[in-house]
C-alpha cells in the first residue's frame, strides 16, 4: 500500500512541475470514443471494439460509461466488458488537469460454449494536458484494478489529435498486471 501511495503522489506532484507558460485551451469532458482495441490477457490475444463516454455533470465531476467486445485471435473465445463510474478533476492551469476516476467493471468471457463472469473495480489517477495549439491532448497516469481477487497496479497512456473542434483521433496504451491493451479510434466532443 505504501508503494501505491508513493506512485500516486509522484504523479500528482509531477503535474505541478510543468511550466505555467504552457497554458492554452480547455480539456473536453463531454465526449464519446469509438476505437478498435487489441489486447493480451495471460498471453492470449484479443481484437475487438470499444466505446467509452464521459459526461460532465458539475463543474468538477463527470460520469463515465464504457463497453467493449473482443474475440480471441487464436481460439473460439470472446470477452465483454462494461464499466460504469465517475470522477473528479482538479484544474491546475487552463490546459492541465489532475483527474481521479473510479468505476465498477462487469466482465464476462467464454470459449467452447462455456462462459463465466466477474465483477471488480478500477481506480485511475492521471494527468491530462492540452498543448498550446489546442490540437494534441496527452494523458498518462496510474491504474489500480481489482478483478477475481487479483489487485494490480498499472499505467495508462493516451494521445488525442484534434483534427477539428469536435473530432479527434485517439491512440492509447494500458498495462495492468496480466493485461495489456492498445487502441486506435476517434473521439467526438459533445456540446458543453
How would you characterize this protein structure?
By secondary structure, the chain is mainly beta. Helices cover 8% and strands 69% of the residues. It has one helix and ten strands; from the N terminus they run αββββββββββ. The protein has a ten-stranded antiparallel beta barrel with strand order 1-2-3-4-5-6-7-8-9-10. A hairpin with a 4-residue loop joins β3 and β4 (77-93). The model is unreliable at 1-24 (pLDDT under 50).
Largest sheet, in brief, is:
10 strands, antiparallel, barrel
Pick out the low-confidence regions. 1-24
Rg result: 17 Å
Secondary-structure element order, N to C: HEEEEEEEEEE
Q: What is the SS-derived class?
A: mainly beta
Helix share of residues? under 10%
Total number of helical segments? 1
Properties at a glance:
about 190 residues; mainly beta; about 10% helix
Topology:
Layout (H helix, E strand, L loop, with lengths): L1 H15 L14 E11 L2 E13 L4 E12 L4 E17 L2 E16 L2 E17 L5 E12 L2 E13 L4 E10 L2 E11 L3
Antiparallel strand pairs: 1-2, 1-10, 2-3, 3-4, 4-5, 5-6, 6-7, 7-8, 8-9, 9-10
State the gist of this model.
By secondary structure, the protein is mainly beta. The protein has one helix at 2-16, and strands spanning 31-41, 44-56, 61-72, 77-93, 96-111, 114-130, 136-147, 150-162, 167-176, 179-189.
Amino acid at each position: 500500500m505504501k508503494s501505491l501511495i508513493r506512485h500516486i503522489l509522484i504523479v500528482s506532484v509531477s503535474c505541478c512541475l510543468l511550466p505555467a507558460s504552457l497554458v492554452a485551451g480547455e480539456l473536453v469532458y463531454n465526449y464519446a470514443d469509438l476505437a478498435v482495441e487489441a489486447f493480451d490477457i495471460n498471453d492470449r490475444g484479443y481484437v475487438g471494439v470499444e466505446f467509452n463516454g464521459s459526461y460532465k455533470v458539475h463543474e468538477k465531476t463527470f460520469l463515465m460509461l464504457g463497453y467493449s467486445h473482443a474475440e480471441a485471435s487464436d481460439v473460439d473465445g470472446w470477452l465483454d466488458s462494461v464499466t460504469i463510474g465517475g470522477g473528479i478533476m482538479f484544474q491546475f492551469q487552463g490546459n492541465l488537469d489532475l483527474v481521479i476516476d473510479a468505476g465498477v467493471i462487469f466482465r464476462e468471457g467464454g470459449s467452447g460454449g462455456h462462459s463465466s463472469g466477474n465483477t471488480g473495480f478500477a481506480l485511475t489517477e492521471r494527468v491530462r494536458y492540452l498543448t498550446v495549439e489546442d490540437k494534441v491532448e496527452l494523458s498518462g497516469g496510474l491504474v489500480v484494478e481489482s478483478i477475481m481477487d487479483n489487485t494490480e497496479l498499472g499505467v495508462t497512456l493516451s494521445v488525442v489529435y484534434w483534427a477539428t473542434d469536435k473530432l479527434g483521433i485517439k491512440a492509447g496504451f494500458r498495462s495492468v498486471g496480466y493485461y495489456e491493451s492498445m487502441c486506435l479510434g476517434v473521439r467526438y466532443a459533445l456540446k458543453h
